[in-house]
Amino acid sequence: MDSYLVCYDISDPKRLRKVARCCEDYGYRKQFSVFLVRVSATDFVRLRTRLYDIINLDVDQVLFLPVTDGCLRQMATLGRPTDAYDKNDVVMVL
User: Fold this and answer.
1) For residues 76 and 54, what is the distance between their CA atoms, to the nearest angstrom?
2) Distances from the Cα of 4 to the Cαs of 27, 47, 76, in angstroms?
3) What domains sit in the chain, N to C, each tagged with a CATH number?
4) SS3 letters for the chain?
5) pLDDT tens digit string along 7-32?
6) Cα 24 from Cα 14, distance rounded (Å)
7) How far apart are the C-alpha atoms of 6 and 42, rounded to whole Å?
8) Main-chain dihedrals φ then ψ at residue 31, nearest 5 degrees
9) Mind listing the pLDDT tens digit for each residue in 34-84?
10) For residues 22 and 47, is the Cβ–Cβ distance under 8 A?
């Protein structure tokens, strides 16, 4: 399983909701437009394909930032607490 931060900037509220729901199927919301996803290579392709079909390529943007387990263990926050990273977390996609 690989870990990614999925960050997005979507200009239309309807597409924004669709992108958020898609990301919820694969990971955990960390901030309003940031998700942590742990996926297999196959599921990563599925996630990218679903998002590609949702967004407007001319005005929207989705970033996929690979994150190592070491980086996740060192994650720190200021302000509102975040859930601790657990390498045993598994995301089920049906």
Assistant:
1) 32
2) 9, 11, 16
3) 2-73 (3.30.70.240)
4) CEEEEEEEECCCHHHHHHHHHHHHCCEEEEECCEEEEEECHHHHHHHHHHHHHHCCCCCCEEEEEEECHHHHHCCCCCCCCCCCCCCCCCCCCC
5) 999 999 999 999 999 999 999 999 99
6) 16
7) 16
8) -145, 180
9) 999 999 999 999 999 999 999 999 999 999 999 998 887 887 778 877 666
10) yes
Structure token digits, residue 37:
């996803």
* pTM for the full predicted model: 0.81
* Residues in the chain, total: 94
Take residue 74 and report the two structure tokens written for it. 């060192």
